[in-house]
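Subgroup meeting minutes
Present: P.N., E.W., G.H.
Scribe: E.W.

1. P.N. recapped why we're keeping a running log of single-chain structure predictions: easier to compare across weeks, and new members can see raw inputs and outputs side by side.
2. G.H. added today's entry (251 aa).
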Amino acid sequence: MKQKRWGKILELCESKNVVNVKDLINYLNVSEATIRRDLQNMEDNDLIVRFHGGAKLNEKSNLEKSMSLKTLLNIEEKNYISSYAASLIKDGDIVFLDAGSTTYNLIDHIKAKDITIVTTGIPHLSKLSQKEIRTFVVSGFVKSSTVAVTGKETVNQISKMVFDISFIGTNGIHAQAGFTTPEEYEGEVKSMVIEKSKESYILADSSKFNKLCFVKFANLEDAKVITDKKIDSFDYTLIDCIFVGENEIIK
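Output recorded in log:
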């Protein structure tokens, strides 16, 4: 329950820029004491900044969301996406699993046997180990905010690999800019993975559409997208998209 409340608070902070305690009490249907305790704990974790009567997102974490923050946002949507994505993995596949909260969640849904996973996600290793999945983690520098392995060495290693299927995160999907990410080497890693994969899937909830970041790593036609739902302001004829909402799967 606490994780869902925190996620809803963060989503409101994103959509409204600032939120006040009274609105949160009504929206979440909990006591003022619970809201104030949540806000204090969230500030202690550098997710928000409190002010008298309310809160806003921590501007530093909002420049590039930390892994801890990402895991609290759009939880239900990510669960639909990751569950469907995991169903695409076949027995014996060699799989690339990008760093990020949706790919992290995907691990819980894997049922395929005798697979090998290559990943750049350091938090992923514990889950993969618990499921006794054969795992290779690439080398490189660890980015503190996203806990992702990145760098020139990471790109070089991936250039020598091949994957049956890959699951890649993105910070933005834009009609003109394509798929984008904030960091250059992370972009190069994603580009190389797509080049080395028989099938590539971008995992992105609907909040990522019409967003763009500094580094383009692929054109819209370079990979399929798995998302939760359509938004009115994006032209989906530009993209190969699979929608996996609560009650349906639409290809």
